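Worked problem 6 (solution included).
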Amino acid sequence: MAFGWIDEQDRARREAGLVRVLRPRPADSPLLDLASNDYLGLARHPEITEGAARAARTWGGGATGSRLVTGTTELHTELERELAGFCGFEAALVFSSGYAANLAAVAALAPHGSLVVSDAGNHASLIDGCRLARGTTQVVAHAEPDAVRKALATHDGPAVAVSDTVFSVDGDAAPLAALAEACREHGAGLVVDDAHGLGVLGEGGRGAPYAAGLAGRDDVVATVTLSKSLGAQGGAVLGPARVIGHLINAARTFIFDTGLAPAAAGAALAALSLLRREPERAARARAVAAELHARLTASGLEAVRPDAAVVSVRAPAPEAAVRWAADCRTAGLSVGCFRPPSVPDGVSRLRLTARADLSGEQIAHAARVIGETRP
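Solution. The predicted structure is:
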């Protein structure tokens, strides 16, 4: 029978408690949201939604084609200029998603004969970029610059190290300065995914590379997503102009994909403008994460100390994590539930978003619900 193997895999998932389901949310959910990646609370901000609406009215509902045909508008060019300037890089290239940006950055910068050194905790999009790259990939221990250094020492030729800046599962930050030093010693490039750093880390939310003094260097490339702190959708690669020029000519997810919808570009531009005016939002997101972590650990829960805005709380088993998240929803709180294979260490957990617009009362309520519903 065609696709008969699917039934067997479905049974295995159910037995392991790893079945995933879609839960459509209403436009006005009554739940307190600690599950999304809306770190700065901008997704519904009037300025951001008006930026999206204005762009759609001006440019239409879609980009109409790939970026190299009709999919590049003046709005896309403006967004790339603003992103590069805000984050401190020479140039930027906008993609339809952060996932597409990561595939492009890794695959296009790791040609045949090259070595890609990838952190064991990297996001799936970076892992898939390594799989698509023509070079050889070596996975090294999580957040260990010496492991990167040793891997690079075994290779004579083009090389690049690849890492998240803030890891999406536990919210821990990569040692960027040390990674950059290891790469510099061996003439290798460094590609970092700043999806969870932009808007949260660095001066006024300019990102982890900016905070580490790496922005604008000729051997550092960063990717970002517009769908988290900026409350929009899409992604971008930031780096030296010659790298961006190479991606325009070599990155398949740029050449063959339809351009980012104008509404998303307009929303992201509005968010950048607001963040320039209100840089304190970044520090507030970090403060909320710290307070949430303190309250959770004070109640006896095992929570990872956050380096940005992600707070991870360990669960005893996949089934327990699912039940815990469901009990939180029943109590009016939406939380993320991460289980294998989404977690590299196989440990299930609740993943919480510390948003800049959460009040002290909401933080206390969230910590109380999570504590009272623990397995």
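Discussion: The two ends are 41 Å apart (CA to CA).
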